[in-house]
């Protein structure tokens, strides 16, 4: 390697710095309880990040549906459907990315806590060595050091907690394919193989101004009959049958573990769409976010779609894999 004097053709390696010794033992002292605190902070950070993402993504999904793929006067804007497909795909990819990131943050904190426990009383007290780091990060080929307590993976913990709270009920999966269905005039009851049930009830409310609101309430029960989740969907229509307000409220858990999320989409008179999301945990103060999307008026009954026409004329739908994955405009 040669020094790069600005003329190109080489790279610069700085001179090595002098080695600094740590003569004072305090300079290298490590308190293992700090690693435990680090684990707690990383776990909280992971949960906070995932919660914030869920709040924002709920707004985005609602805006994509209402702003791009909802029919106006019986017609759907072709370019809006194409954009909606792209955005749905991107949001799906990003959701997996966020899941990996938050799990990684949590796992790093968990590894720090395990290391703190392994070396709490020095490595000689429990026979731990550097090879046990593989055990810390869940290497299936390794085992814990001699004398280390019985362990439970986070996956096993999640499964155990799901079983205890009933959150592993088949009725919560959203797949009704194998459920036994009992219908009645205003709804249906779905009974699943594990004994859990989903009860769907529909009704219509009439407002003082004559507007109709269709209400669909879904109750999810565990195999033991415990109520696990309640979801209420409300759609309000104007005189011409168009939706003016759409809201979905989901409640899960009870007491301090209660979680409630309500998303409301409102069609404003100026053509814009307002999306409001309210999230509440336990008895804490609700967290509210609201955004309004201004959009062009695509309600021309003539059916003209100049961008679509130009796309067909110029064959500009994109490369082969794009057409394969998303179709054409």
TrEMBL record:
Residues 293-323 have a biased composition (Basic and acidic residues). Residues 233-242, 276-292 have a biased composition (Polar residues). Residues 261-275 have a biased composition (Low complexity). Residues 233-329 are annotated as: Disordered. This is Uncharacterized protein.
């Amino acid at each position: 390697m040669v020094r790069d004097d600005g003329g190109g053709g080489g790279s610069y390696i700085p001179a090595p710095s002098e080695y600094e010794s740590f003569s004072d033992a305090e300079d290298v002292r490590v308190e293992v309880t700090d690693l435990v605190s680090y684990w707690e902070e990383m776990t909280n950070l992971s949960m906070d990040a995932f919660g914030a993402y869920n709040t924002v993504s709920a707004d985005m999904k609602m805006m994509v549906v209402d702003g791009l793929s909802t029919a106006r006067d019986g017609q759907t804007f072709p370019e809006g459907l194409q954009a909606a497909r792209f955005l749905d795909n991107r949001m799906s990819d990003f959701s997996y990315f966020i899941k990996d990131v938050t799990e990684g943050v949590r796992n790093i904190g968990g590894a720090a806590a395990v290391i703190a426990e392994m070396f709490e009383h020095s490595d000689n007290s429990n026979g731990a060595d550097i090879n046990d780091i593989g055990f810390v990060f869940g290497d299936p080929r390794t085992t814990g050091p001699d004398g280390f307590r019985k362990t439970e993976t986070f996956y096993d913990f999640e499964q155990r907690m799901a079983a205890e709270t009933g959150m592993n009920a088949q009725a919560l999966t959203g797949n009704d394919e194998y459920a036994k269905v009992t219908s009645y005039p205003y709804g249906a009851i779905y009974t699943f193989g594990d004994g859990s049930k989903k009860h769907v009830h529909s009704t219509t409310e009439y407002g003082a101004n004559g507007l109709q609101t269709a209400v669909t309430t879904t109750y999810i029960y565990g195999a033991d009959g415990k109520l696990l989740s309640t979801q209420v969907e409300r759609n309000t229509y104007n005189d011409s049958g168009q939706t003016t307000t759409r809201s979905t409220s989901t409640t899960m858990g009870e007491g301090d573990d209660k979680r409630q999320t309500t998303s409301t989409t409102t069609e404003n008179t100026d053509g814009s769409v307002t999306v409001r999301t309210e999230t509440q945990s336990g008895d804490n103060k609700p967290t509210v976010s609201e955004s309004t999307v201004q959009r062009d008026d695509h309600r021309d009954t003539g059916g003209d779609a100049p961008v679509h026409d130009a796309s067909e004329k110029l064959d500009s739908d994109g490369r082969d894999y794009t057409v394969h994955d998303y179709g054409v405009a």
